[in-house]
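Try it yourself: sequence plus iron/sulfur cluster, in.
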Amino acid sequence: MLDVLRSRAVHKRPDRVRFQGRVLFLTEDPDLVRRQLAGHDLEWTAAAKLRDDISTDEITPAYVCYYYDETLGEFPYVGLKCRHEFPISRGSVRHGGFAVSVSGKRRGKGSSREQSPYAERCAGIRLVIAENLERIYRENCQNLGILTTTDFSIIERVRRGEEIPLATFTRGEGEITRGVIEYGGLFNYNVARLQGKATVALPGTPPRPMTLGEKILARHWVADPAAGAIGVPAVRPGDEGFVLTDIRFSHEYVTPMAAIFFEQLMGPEARVADPDTVLMFRDHLTFLPEAMTPERVKEGLLDIALELEKKQRTFAERQGIKLYGELRSRRRGAEAICHSKILEAHAEPGQVIIGSDSHTPHAGAVGCLAFGVGTTAIFNSWITKDVRITVPETVKVVIHGAKPDNVTAKDFMLEILRHPYVKSGGAIGKLIEYCGDAVAMLSVDERATMTNMTAEVGGFTGYVAPDQRTVEYLIEARGLSRMQAEALCEGLASDPGAAYSTVIEIDAARVRPMLALPGDPGNGMPIEDAAGPIRVDIAYAGSCTAGKKEDMDMYARVLRDAAARGARVAPWVRFYIQCGSQDVKRYCEDRGYLELFREVGATFLEPSCGACINAGPGVSKTPDEVTISAINRNFPGRSGPGQLYLGNPYTVAASALAGYVTAWDPDAGRATHA
Ligand code: SF4
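Structure, out:
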């Protein structure tokens, strides 16, 4: 396979670029956006406030990602919410002749979907300008050959038709990122690397105290690809290179696009390197037929979405890759959500894992370095087994003290997400090390809620250093002997004297059950401070974040109390409980939870992403419907058009019973409304 690449022609792009097209400002004011789409070029001033926090869900909403070819160019920004309106419609960006797209802070937050920059590229966008860009989105742009900058002075130069030196976009970048930009994308860069045209210098960092994240990267560093030498003595933030991965996984939302890139560029006969370390999942869309609106079905979108499953299954079969598929019986559902299964059955302390999904850090709960990458990085890793990396700085989050009984890891995360450092984007692209005695007290399941939501923090990844709880987890969940489990965890701790860019300290005793108001998981506040009452129509208890065994214990704890009092789910509430894997379902069956859930009026669902990705029972249908949900993010449109509030598993169950957003009070056995 590599011989094909060694003989392939590859060149750098010209060292000056000119952008032929208009500039599109994504503003808060929907009328300004509409005027630009109608052909008027905006004289931009600071008064025309740019949209901040544009998520990839807004650039390409979930249904748009059923397409995985150039049709995506019809859709960029169709989910962009400007005040209460969606001013961009299908085809309008492509037809507007735009080459540059401008927005404010934290562009590209949320899902790692590469469909977003790919849709932009297919619509003609060649340059993205923003105050700052989220890590995965920015890398995806680079991997696809879209230029990015935070320098707003470029706008006038573009408009004057100036040729701009390519160096403008590589300034300050490390050697590899510069190479990826110069070669017009990751695949071309990797070809140049294999041909020896692009070389990667070893970091040369002398031994130094390292954080656990840095240590894992140093152990996996590709030192000499030709000789297969892996590992360097030390790394420090800013070092660039490639690291060998232990596991690479993708799901049906991404695999088809990656497979097409792979087959187009490598040829139909090419084989994935080391397929035993590649995993695929059918998890996102198994319930879609129940959630898609009749209008969308009429447009043919259901048929297009079902193609994703077929394309992934065919590719996995041809390549000999293990696929966790959908249920074969008449029931809808999946064997497991990817993150749930990776943690339950595959991740080991000290590994490097990449996944085609922003919540890949979930597996960091057992002390591995797991991070999300885009489609291009995944398909490149099928060839090279490695992934490019710039060593991030590490942020330490210390949570100490004893938490109240009705406070969970979810509340810790909603508290962290409203911290000014995180809200201002300070944690973007960083390693997040969660520690402190309150974290040490958490189970691995609860730690996974924290590492999972590192995606919302904007971090590169999050992890908890392995300890005795990790050992017990590996014995119980994996059937390892104590000696094997301890050997896996050996030496996996940050060094005394390791450097942290920031330390955030949280007193667990002061954390209260939290509520994130609709729009962003960073909109958190204690439930007791939220203006209420907030009447709910839907309660959703599931997803990778909240479909684990311990989450089920929490739902059951609240509901058992209720059942004992003869209470049931409020008559106007639809309450769905959805587990993350068949293992979790068996756990529920063994403990009699399924009967309990039925008894109080909840609907139990087989594993799948479902409502979390606007594709299953539990989605809202109208803008005024209110949902309380245990999922990880509530960006506009994430789970239907309604108002999506986030809370912890106790809160979701208590709210379903009360019919209002409600913090669970374990002493009273009932609760107080917001
Ligand atoms: S459950 Fe939600 S957050 Fe988790 S992988 Fe699925 S879509 Fe992503």
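One thing you can check immediately is this: The two ends are 60 Å apart (CA to CA).
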